[in-house]
Specification:
Layout lengths: L5 E6 L8 E4 L10 H10 L9 E5 L11 H4 L11 H15 L5 E6 L1 H12 L4 E7 L8 H17 L22 H12 L3 H12 L5 H4 L6 E6 L7 H4 L2 H4 L5 E6 L6 H4 L1 H14 L1
Parallel strand pairs: 2-3, 2-4, 4-5, 5-6, 6-7
Antiparallel strand pairs: 1-3
């Protein structure tokens, strides 16, 4: 049984050309890709056969409904959803095929990177390229899992998204854009437009995901890693070692200056060029 996945098409492409699928971060939705997708399309507008560019919405994000218990799978004793990531990945693959494609370059940022690696593990045949932005391959440790579950419970119990509003608040060492009034206002609005139940579902889903590190050595398609120099959780010094494990592919590393955890919003042109570089090799 597949979950409902919403698709946003930024550009209809030639059906014979590998498209790009953009997968968003937590706790927002596909809109984090809007400007970057626009830049990606502009950079490749001269192509005689343009490739499609689309974003797929995670369940519970934006207007995408929260999965039912039957769709989602059981909750573990620790409050996580151990089957949800795989079921979501299967649903993303089904949506790609429904769009008329057999494979794509998958570009995921943060939680979207987790999903991208899950898709590769379950269906490597639909992956023509991989771009991992501001993310990691490992699963959560016990403390992080417990924190995710605690946030999920607070969101549901109090019907609020307040526990994740810190993503919109300027922090010490943030990029110039993240400290700007425009960014704070935009992310505050985006987060407030999320449903508390959806935020909670994504926290439990991410907390229950498996360790995808073994997937890195199995990637044989063109790949890219993108990391903001000011990212507190996935800075270059943490992401760059992933290249050493990606032994069966050529992986380009893009270090993004003056950018934190949301590089596709903070420096969309640089991220668009990184994605285009992988798509050109796919």
């Amino acid at each position: 049984m597949t979950m409902t996945i919403l698709r946003t098409t930024y550009r209809q492409g030639d059906p014979d050309v590998v498209p790009v699928v953009l997968v968003h971060a937590f706790p927002v939705d596909h809109r984090v890709w809007d400007t970057c997708a626009e830049r990606l399309c502009a950079l490749s507008n001269d192509d005689s056969k343009p490739f499609g560019v689309m974003a797929l919405e995670m369940p519970g994000a934006g207007e995408c409904p929260v999965p039912s218990a039957e769709e989602n799978g059981p909750m573990a004793a620790d409050g996580t959803y151990p089957e949800a990531m795989d079921r979501m990945a299967e649903s993303f693959v089904a949506e790609l095929k429904a769009a008329g494609y057999s494979k794509a370059v998958w570009a995921g940022i943060s939680m979207g990177g987790y999903l991208t690696l899950a898709v590769h593990r379950l269906h490597p045949e639909v992956v023509a390229g991989v771009v991992l932005c501001d993310t990691k391959s490992g699963d959560d440790n016990a403390a992080t899992k417990a924190n995710r579950v605690s946030i999920a419970e607070e969101c549901v119990h109090n019907n609020t998204v307040a526990p994740v509003m810190h993503f919109a608040e300027p922090q010490p060492g943030d990029s110039a854009l993240k400290r700007s009034e425009g960014f704070v206002s935009l992310f505050t609005r985006w987060i407030n437009e999320q449903h508390p139940q959806g935020v909670a579902w994504r926290e439990r889903m991410a907390a229950g995901r498996p360790d995808e590190t073994p997937q890195l050595a199995k990637i044989t398609v063109p790949a890219g890693l993108v990391s903001g120099t000011l990212d507190p959780s996935s800075p270059p010094e943490r992401m760059r070692p992933m290249i050493d494990q990606m032994t069966q592919t050529e992986c380009a590393f893009t270090e993004v200056p003056d950018a934190g955890h949301f590089t596709c919003v903070e420096q969309p042109d640089i991220v668009a060029k990184a994605i285009l570089g992988v798509q050109r090799r796919a």
